């Protein structure tokens, strides 16, 4: 069975969050970039101290565009500043994540993964120029990484420059933990890293998310995605060094150890 606690350990510790719980409600999620709270139908995404101060505003804009595209996603309400953190406020949507659903009933793991892949494939059919190019985002993360040497940055940027551009909608962090399921329908959450680019880049980020979780789902996911799209495994994994390298400096020590061999 998938151990969700094992997955959560890949993120940095939260610390004392009493003031956030008092203002925003129960803590309902923990991620690499933010901690999530909810009360009275409103979700507060409190960004971590190591995140860019503009990230909340960028995600708010991105969600507003996603809402206009009629993609199944929460409605965005606004951004505020509290206790030194930027906070994105949005609609609390009903449902259980496909990750939690799989944890509760491992016999349906294949079904839930198929559902996630189907959703991602539909996203990749949308073309848009409303968002930052995914190559620009990856380049910026490599430049800003606190853990990469100058030599590593130069090597990764060289690889990145050889990879293709595109205008397909890329979620940027698509995995079963970011899809909520209820009454036969799905809502996609966490649009912080939405971009435009080639679908292979987005699929590679999903592969990496599975790989970091260390539950053995990355190859199953990749096989299903390739079967659903006709895209080639090698074209997707060509992005792996730059995707892994760009996220490396922002992960916990445990996650760093897991992905270090990938670049």
Write the layout of secondary structure elements.
Blueprint: H1 4-8, H2 18-24, E1 26-30, E2 34-39, E3 42-47, H3 55-68, E4 76-82, E5 85-91, E6 96-97, H4 98-104, H5 109-124, H6 134-144, H7 150-161, E7 168-170, E8 179-182, E9 185-188, E10 195-197, H8 199-213, H9 218-229, H10 233-237, H11 240-248, H12 253-259
Antiparallel strand pairs: 1-2, 2-3, 3-5, 4-5, 6-8, 7-10, 8-9
Q: What keyword list fits this structure?
A:
disordered N terminus, 3-stranded antiparallel sheet, 5-stranded antiparallel sheet, 12 helices, alpha+beta, single chain, 263 residues, globular
Describe this structure in words.
The chain is α+β, with helices and mostly antiparallel strands and 263 residues long. Helix content is 46%, strand content 18%. It has 12 helices and 10 strands. It has helices at residues 4-8, 18-24, 55-68, 98-104, 109-124, 134-144, 150-161, 199-213, 218-229, 233-237, 240-248, 253-259; strands spanning 26-30, 34-39, 42-47, 76-82, 85-91, 96-97, 168-170, 179-182, 185-188, 195-197. The strands form 3 sheets. A 5-stranded antiparallel sheet has the order 1-2-3-5-4. Strands 6-8-9 form a 3-stranded antiparallel sheet. Strands 7-10 form a two-stranded antiparallel ribbon. Helix 6 (134-144) packs antiparallel against helix 7. The longest helix is centred in the middle third of the chain and has 16 residues, at 109-124. The protein is globular, with a radius of gyration of 18 Å. It starts with a helix and ends with a helix. Mean pLDDT is 92; it is low at 1-9.
């Amino acid at each position: 069975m998938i151990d969700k606690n094992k997955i959560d350990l890949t993120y940095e510790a939260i610390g004392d969050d009493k003031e956030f719980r008092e203002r925003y409600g129960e803590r309902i999620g923990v991620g690499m970039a933010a901690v999530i709270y909810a009360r009275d139908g409103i979700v507060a995404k409190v960004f971590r101290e190591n995140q860019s101060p503009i990230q909340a505003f960028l995600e708010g804009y991105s969600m507003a565009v996603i809402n206009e595209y009629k993609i199944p996603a929460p409605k965005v309400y606004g951004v505020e500043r509290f206790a030194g953190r930027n906070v994105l406020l949005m609609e609390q949507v009903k449902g259980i994540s496909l990750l939690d659903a799989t944890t509760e009933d491992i016999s349906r793991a294949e079904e839930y993964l198929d559902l996630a892949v189907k959703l991602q494939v539909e996203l990749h059919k949308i073309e848009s120029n409303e968002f930052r190019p995914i190559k620009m985002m990856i380049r910026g993360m490599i430049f800003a990484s606190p853990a990469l040497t100058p030599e590593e940055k130069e090597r990764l940027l060289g690889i990145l420059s050889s990879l293709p551009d595109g205008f397909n909608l890329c979620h940027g962090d698509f995995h079963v933990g970011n899809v909520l399921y209820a009454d036969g329908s799905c809502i996609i959450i966490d649009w912080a890293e939405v971009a435009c680019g080639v679908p292979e880049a987005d699929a590679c980020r999903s592969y990496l998310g599975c790989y970091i979780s260390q539950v053995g789902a990355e190859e199953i996911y990749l096989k299903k995605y390739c079967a659903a799209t006709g895209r080639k495994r090698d074209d997707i994994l060509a992005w792996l060094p730059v995707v892994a390298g760009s996220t490396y400096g922002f992960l916990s020590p445990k996650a760093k150890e897991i992905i270090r061999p990938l670049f």
